[in-house]
Specification:
alpha/beta, Rossmann fold, ABC transporter transmembrane region fold, 18 helices, binds adenosine-5'-triphosphate, 619 residues, four-stranded antiparallel beta sheet, 64% helix, six-stranded mixed beta sheet
Length: 619
């Protein structure tokens, strides 16, 4: 390749990399800017003042020492300040002490604002994760999302810490030292300092690039490892029952091994960098002292000057090293932040977290209309095809059919967890695509197929999300869902902690908590997706009766495999492979002798042979 063109490409590459980095820092700053309040800014400003003061004192301390030595060694006072030794000693000690105090103040002020920003940033990230659509969460591992957020926060802390503690003081110290050297000493020392500084910059720039690359890999590996960790912990019941402890530990260790090797690359990059710096430092120190020695011997320099140049050479390493460390660790922080910024770029659901004006009628039982709705989760695999039906206000409609037929998907579309590929869904005549999801969901109470509870008290879980001030309502809802017997038995009653995802409760108890929660909502549409599938027949019958009373006047959509629970429905829609194959009342459908009749027959036959076999025959 032509050398000039390759050079040009190199330049273009550099310019591109620079503008990319600029874009990154703008994006990263845009995330925290709205979170900074006046107090944060004031604390930062005060920390900044301490940094400037501390750095100036650190740089000027050796000057006082030089003056003291010159005075003590009887050398002609070449300086303008003819101060007595005690004053000079006090100045030197004072500069050292004050610089330490400024450093402590800086840490105190910075720590307070860092924690405030970290809290606000964590809250913002969590709120964002909560506002992301269900589609996002179903496609991601919980542990990976958690680690991405954790890495991001750590990244911000690294960047903030180094901006305040390393980059800034480093720059100020170098500036002041260069000024003093230029004013007081032979310019040759400035040249040595400058040569060392240039070499440092090259070595650090190279190191920072390598460390950044290694940090990216570390960040990705940490996320993968945490995804495995959370997956194992969440599935511990399956792990135990299938004695899979060793298998999941191995699976987790495989990701840990990758993370370990990425960390090794990271530390190797840092090590190589550190060794190069040590060589430059030793070379610079040797050159300075050799030049200083010759000048002291020839009388061109005082002993104080020699001490000053030595102190600066030792001291200049620190700010330069700090600068390098700062750049390197900011690179690491940036790599950690990158993934989090990608997550923040994920679009939240429209209207999520915001208060949006509601559209359409505000009360009364809902009318739900499906108009030629077609839907697939992934291209090429259609789940619902040309679905058209209407659920009349105040009616009870049942959705039945074989497993995987698309019943829960109908519910997800009504909730706007997903949008249809074609056709539309209307809520009281208003297309739900025009209703903000958060508004729409306020009108609907859903008892989902899989109930997973918060690791909190029974009362919290029933009253979720508005726990405070509804104690009586919670007790009433618990009683409606036949939970009072259980609560009486528990030593802590409503305050009993239900365990992670409600694991300390039985499947049926969890379902009843979900029913109680939904019944508190006073919705316009009540949806029960297999809400009583884990209950024994008698409890189920009692709850169904209670629900019928509670849902009187509310439009109700019930998905059920156990057909005995929906014989009284006003309308039964039979779905098969995403299409409506039959529709009518229980008696009509039986008389028709189609899919519904055969499902019914299978269940009643099973029931005749034993009640437990009657469960889930739709599967
Ligand atoms: N998040 C998803 N991503 C991809 N495919 C999905 C997703 N959820 C469900 N499916 C698929 O969509 C189809 C319909 O699922 P759906 O849960 O709506 O059926 P269902 O009638 O409620 O089944 P069941 O009675 O077993 O609960 C199934 O083939 C299922 O594998």
């Amino acid at each position: 390749m032509h050398p000039v063109s390759s050079k040009r490409r190199g330049l273009t590459h550099l310019v591109e990399a620079h503008s990319k980095q600029k874009g990154f820092f703008n994006r990263a700053f845009a995330v925290i800017r709205p979170e900074l309040d006046r107090l944060d800014v004031a604390r930062f400003a005060a920390a900044f003042a301490c940094v400037v003061l501390g750095a100036a004192l650190t740089a000027l301390g050796p000057v006082a020492l030089k003056l003291l030595i010159d005075t003590l060694s009887g050398g002609a006072p070449t300086h303008m300040l003819a101060l007595d030794p005690l004053t000079l000693l006090a100045l030197y000690v004072g500069a050292q002490g004050a610089s330490r105090v400024a450093s402590e103040m800086r840490m105190f002020l910075f720590g307070a604002s860092e924690q405030s920003i970290t809290r606000k940033l964590s809250r913002k990230l969590f709120a964002h994760a909560m506002a992301l659509p269900l589609r996002f969460h179903l496609a991601r591992a919980t542990g990976a999302v958690a680690q991405t957020l954790e890495n991001g926060i750590q990244g911000y802390r690294l960047v903030m810490q180094h901006a305040v503690f390393t980059l800034l003081p480093g720059l100020i110290e170098i500036l002041i030292m260069s000024l003093v050297v230029a004013l007081v000493l032979d310019p040759v020392f400035l040249a040595v300092f400058a040569a060392c500084a240039v070499l440092y910059i090259f070595v650090f720039a190279d190191g920072a690039r390598k460390v950044l690359r290694a940090s990216r890999s570390v960040s990705a590996a940490r996320i993968d490892a945490n995804a495995q960790l959370a997956d194992g912990l969440l599935n511990f019941e399956a792990v135990k029952s299938f004695t899979g402890e060793a298998a999941v530990t191995r699976r987790y260790d495989d990701t840990l091994k990758i993370a370990q090797s990425r960390w090794r690359d990271f530390y190797r990059a840092r090590f190589v960098n550190g060794i190069a710096i040590a060589f430059i430092f030793s070379g610079g120190l040797a050159a300075t002292l050799w030049l200083g020695l010759a000048r002291v011997q020839s009388g061109a320099m005082s002993v104080g000057d020699f001490v000053l140049v030595n102190a600066y050479m030792l001291q200049i390493v620190r700010p330069l090293e700090l600068l390098g460390l700062g750049v390197r660790d900011i690179g690491q922080g940036a790599a950690f932040i990158e993934r989090m910024l990608d997550l923040l770029d994920e679009k939240p659901e429209s209207g999520a977290g915001a208060s949006v004006p509601a559209i359409g009628p505000q009360e009364g039982p809902a009318r739900i209309t499906f108009e030629h709705v077609t839907f697939s989760y992934h291209e090429g695999r259609r789940v619902l095809t040309d679905l058209s039906f209407e659920i009349a206000p105040g009616s009870m409609t049942a959705l039945v059919g074989s497993s995987g037929g698309g019943k829960s998907s109908v519910v997800r579309l009504i909730m706007r967890f997903y949008d249809p590929d074609a056709g539309r869904i209307l809520f009281d005549g208003v297309p739900i695509a025009e209703i903000p999801p958060t508004e729409l969901r306020k009108w609907i109470a859903l008892v989902p197929q899989d109930t997973s509870l918060f690791n909190d008290s029974l009362a919290y879980n029933i009253g979720f999300p508005e726990y405070d001030g509804v104690q009586d309502d919670i007790a009433r809802a618990a009683s409606l869902a036949n939970l009072d017997g259980l609560i009486d038995k528990l030593p802590d009653g409503f305050d009993t902690i239900v365990g992670e995802r409600g694991l300390k409760l039985s499947g049926g108890e969890k379902q009843r908590v979900a029913i109680a929660r939904a019944s508190l909502k006073q919705p316009r549409l009540f949806i029960a997706d297999e809400a009583t599938s884990s209950l024994d027949s008698r409890t189920e019958a009692e709850i169904v009766d209670n629900l019928a009373i509670a849902a009187r006047g509310v439009t109700t959509l019930v998905i059920a495999h156990r057909l005995s629970t929906i014989v009284k429905a006003d309308d039964i829609i039979v779905l098969d492979q995403g299409r409506i194959v039959e529709r009518g009342r229980h008696g009509d459908l039986l008389a028709r002798g189609g899919l519904y009749a055969s499902l019914w027959r299978a269940q009643t036959d099973d029931a005749a042979h034993g009640p437990d076999r009657a469960r889930g025959t739709g599967a």
